[in-house]
Amino acid sequence: MASKKSVDDLARHLTRRLGSDRVFRPGDGWYARTTELWNRAVTARPALVARPRTDAEVATAVTAARESGVGLSVRAGGHDWAGRALRNDGLVIDLGEMRDVRVTRDTAVAGGGSRAMDVVTAAAPHGMNVATGTAGVVGMAGLSLGGGYGPLLGTAGLAADNLLGATVVLADGRLVSTEDDPELLWALRGGGGNFGVVTSMRIRLHPDRGLVGGMALFPWQDAAKVLDRYAELTADAPEGLTLLLEMTVVPDVGPSLLVVPVWSGERREADAALDEVARLGTPVMSTVAPISQKDLLGQFDDSVPHGMHWDIRTRTVAALTPAVMELLIASAEARPGPGAGIGLRRFHGAATRVGADDTAFGLRTDHVLVEISAGRGPDEDDVVYRDWADQVSAALAPHAMPGGYPNFLGPDQHEQIEHAYGAHAARLLRAKETYDPSHVFTATPLPARRSQEAPVAPERVAD
């Protein structure tokens, strides 16, 4: 823990360099706003927050923190459920002032603090869509660096697959470009924000061929039938059709299955694909229709209540077998409260065609990602919800593939972390020692260095 004098000295230095209107301490007007995260269960409280506006100011903050001995963290969207955007008693570099997005033909250049909706909104007038996650409020950098499953996955791949380049402030304060360092780009595309501060991203865009999507709500009493047909459909779905499924509780309705079909392929093929979705059962309601990407993400944002406390667990299964589906239904029925749910995301299509060694992302074969979300109000018993999430994860473990989705793994899931990056673990650890040998940055969890691993000379960082 840094001393009070170190923090005071750092605050004075950053105030001189950035200005008093962009350096905050507890009690300052902007402090509460810049330390508020999506997961309200996070209790970490930094000693200092800096809001830089330029690459040079980010470098100033990184260098000053290192020289003062004050630990640092980076906040972009603030949606990492484990709260790693906030360093207790340290410095937070808040990129909220760096959200500009510029679009040129099929590419966007976005500031490191950009949200997914910022990029989508900028791309729309150019007739382009973006490989994002399911929510518009999530930071584009954190999403992309960890992977980024989303509604265009079948035709556009992961968000990480569409990260074409980045500028990065390293732990020693240098600003580097991945154009001069392809190994750094490889590490960023799935290895998380563990190597420096991403101040800008170059993102591939995709022509908007006319999205069709929305939400269809099915009654819980039909859960077995709907889930069985969902498994059949996703196992052989065309690339243009991405189907998300949430086992959830809907206000004024009760336990339900919320299916989110999105068609992003050729528009003339949409009706036939969505007719297959209608075979899942008889929905209580459906909003599936032609839709803009902005409105699609807005629906997701509106469906998640604000102010919740969260614990998340994740497993990956090769397929939704009868045993897995039976387990999922029983687990959902045992939920401790209405905020606990289970989500399914299918990995298929364009995402599977990316070369296994082209990115740090660890799993390129067809699979189903299971998200176990224990959401609760601030006055509910967190132990009961956390225990439920752990029990569901443990029950799925015998049916699951090794590892798990890094963006959903917490720092204590050691066994899953060891396998989360597949065959890329050793290469990622070498990258960590090359770009951040002092381990200044902590984002998605990396495996522990294996004692039996033969030492390898670090690869050179471009000047």
Helix proportion range: 25-40%
- What is the C-alpha radius of gyration, as a whole number of Å? 22 Å
- Biggest sheet descriptor: 9 strands, antiparallel
Q: Number of helical runs? A: 14
The geometry reads as: globular
Q: Give the integer mean of the pLDDT values.
A: 94
What is the CA-CA span between the terminal residues?
A: 32 Å
Q: Give the structural class.
A: alpha+beta
Number of strands: 19
Strand proportion, as a percent range, falls in 15-25%
List low-confidence stretches: 454-463
Written account of the structure:
- By secondary structure, this protein is of the alpha+beta class.
- 30% of the residues lie in helices and 22% in strands.
- Residues 454-463 have low confidence and may be disordered.
Salient structural properties:
globular; disordered C terminus; 463 residues; alpha+beta; six-stranded antiparallel β-sheet; 14 helices; 30% helix
Write the layout of secondary structure elements.
Blueprint lengths: L3 H15 L4 E2 L6 H4 L13 E3 L4 H14 L3 E4 L15 E4 L6 E4 L2 E5 L4 H8 L4 E3 L9 H7 L6 H4 L6 E7 L5 E3 L4 H10 L5 E11 L4 E2 L2 E4 L3 H13 L5 E10 L3 E10 L6 H9 L6 E2 L2 E2 L2 H11 L5 E9 L4 H12 L6 E8 L19 E10 L5 H15 L17 H6 L5 H11 L28
Helix pairs in contact: 1-3, 8-11, 11-12
Put the structure in a nutshell:
The protein is α+β, with helices and mostly antiparallel strands. The protein contains 14 helices and 19 strands.
